Amino acid sequence: MDSKLLKPVLAVYVAAFILFLYGPFIVLGILSFQQGPEGGPQFPIIEWSTYWYRHLFGLTPPSRIAPLPVGEALLRSLTLAFMTMVTATVLGVMAAQAFRRRFKGAGIVFYLIVLGMMVPGVLTGLGTSLLANNVVGVERHWWTTAFVAHVVYTFPFAFLVMLAILNRFDGSVEEAAWSLGVSPARTFRKVTFPLIFPGVLSAMLFAFTLSFDEFPRTLFASGRDQTLPLAIYGTFSVEIHPNIFAFGVMTTLFSFSLLAIYGILMGLSVRRAKKIAMQEDIS
Amino acid sequence: MGHTESIFRLDNVSRQFGELIALNDISFEAAQNEYISLLGPSGSGKTTLLRVMAGFEKPDTGRIHFLGQDITDLPAHKRGIGFVFQNFALFPHLSVFENIAFGLRNGIEDVAGTEIDTRVRDMVGLVGLEGLEDRVPDQISGGQKQRVALARTLVMQPKLVLLDEPLGALDANLRSRMQTELRHIRERLDVTFLHVTGSETEALAMGDTVAVLDQGRIIQSGTPEQIHDTPASSDVALFLNRFNLFDGTLSDNTFRGPFGSAPVQNARHNDTDVYAIRYDRTKAFRKGDALPGPALPARYLASEYLGSSVISFFETADHKQVEVDHHLSFGDPGEYEVGQDYILSWDPEHAIVFGREAAA
User: Fold this and answer.
1) Which among A100, A175, A179, A191 is the top mutation candidate for probing chain B, defined by the most B β-carbons within 10 Å of its own β-carbon?
2) What is the ipTM for the molecules in this complex?
3) In A, which residues are within 8 Å of B83 by CB distance?
4) Cβ–Cβ contacts within 10 Å for residue B193, how many?
């Protein structure tokens, strides 16, 4: 295609992409500084203020707007996301490790695992609840049924990340360790795991964030104690105030800081490798 | 320890990958404290043989004995056989020192910290890695990596070390230096090296014993002299890359080939009739010169100067390339003109003939 035409088209495309990606968040971010408690969740900004942030932490005088019921829900969601992250990552690493050997029925097992992220979430949630209540006889809680539903959902992601990592992993270092008289279990701990650790970190990040804001599966499976996304949704159904926006900004910043820590850790290891490579070139 | 006791013995070992037969009923026994080189073209199954011996793969059939013990069903980490990889396979997250100490620290035996220290320092000295102990593998050169890989294996004091094309990743200069060093290191320790290589020069130069592998079978084994001077089959002669080989027919002690017919004193049994004459036994003559034997007309193509000798390339009427290796200690080579026809000849006594009619 003619580059004179291509460039503007691409520019518009990128602009639209960025607009839809960041637009909602920017609008939310601006509105979170709306005046309170009278200011509503819409433009124009009557007066800039941090009222809704203070409201979030209970630092404002009591008003007709109840504080967001997020305290316990947040703790619950963090705990659930952590449990899910650990379980899904352990399972993901183990399953991907198993797939390094072409075992019988590997294809079927692969699709069975990946099914967990394909099946519509609401169905999984509902099915898990029915199964727990009517067949197994387990009470629905965020740490029972919802936990299982989250693991089923995040496990495939962790598995696929680890599969990609192990695909590029050169097994000869493990064989070298065996030939030095080191048992396979110790070889995994001392050689394989340290080398695949960046991948494990990625799998953990995936599992954590996916579980943290999971909604459809949790809706039916979580029982009476709600997780954070459910609690927030609950407040929507009554009335929307900018305190939700303020909370959204806070959680996004939290996610960003997690990503930043991850990025810094990865960047450090990459930079170390690059520095070494440069030394190689010079010497 | 005597040379008579065997270090390992393979009994009818076979391994197949789908349709591909990697090892075809291999039986082989090797003496202790030797340098054995295993020569084979790529795809001959030589790496598979090493991997089966190391325990990374199981043979389909057959037994493997090591120091008189059947180790066929023993996992790799309980065999006590060292392995040096072509790509070195160093632990990239550990320093040179920790790479070498790895087996001592994490192995089944409990080795005291101070002993680990002395043994690693000794080994660092033996392979000449002083001063590099704290570097990681990415910070050292290929030759140094090779030494770390070797030191890491030797520090465990194995009786047998398998080396999978250990010099393949090094440049030519370093390769010849490591050849000498490998032999030297082996002689200082009471250890057998089984060195797999696709290079006939390397195999002949390094091995006390040379075994030739082709299509999953060991087709000949013996001293380098035996292999070089009396190849057991035309395939061995081909791998040695030192013989001009001619197809033809052998009957009644006469070989008929592109050079006419030549008398044959004795022939070795082979599936095809092949006439082999070493490059350095083949000589080029002008028309009209007195010839020592058969006459093979050929056109001169080019020469390669190798320092101590000159290799000249000729082409016969049926477009087969023939090499003439002239050692310079025998005087200057003749001046040949590109595109001119010459007569190649040799003393038929030096020829090695393979044929179907010869006794097995």
Assistant:
1) A179
2) 0.83
3) 175-176, 179
4) 24
Residue A271: strand pairing partners: none
Nearest to A183 among B77, B83, B139 (CB): B77
Q: Mean of the pLDDT values across residues A38-65?
A: 79
pTM score, whole prediction? 0.80
Q: Which of B78, B80, B89 sits opposite A172 (nearest CB)?
A: B89
**Mean per-residue pLDDT, B6-21:** 90
CATH class belonging to B6-232: alpha beta
Please give the structure tokens belonging to residue B35: 């340098």
Secondary structure letter of residue B40 according to DSSP:
-
Residue that is written with structure tokens 């067949």 in the block: A135
In order of start, what are the domains of chain A with their CATH numbers? 1-65+242-283 (no CATH), 72-240 (1.10.3720.10)
**Which residues on chain A are in Cβ contact (under 8 Å) with B156?**
180-181
Poorest-confidence range of A199-208, A230-239, B291-300?
A: A230-239
Evaluate if residue A234 carries a pLDDT over 90.
no
The residue ranges of every structural domain in chain B are: 6-232, 242-355
**Is B285:B343 a contact under the CB 8 Å cutoff?**
yes
- Interface mutation vs chain A, best among B106, B111, B119, most A CBs within 10 Å: B106
Give the three-class secondary structure for A20. helix
Tell me which of 3.40.640.10, 2.40.50.140, 3.40.50.10190, 1.25.40.10 is the CATH number of domain B242-355.
2.40.50.140
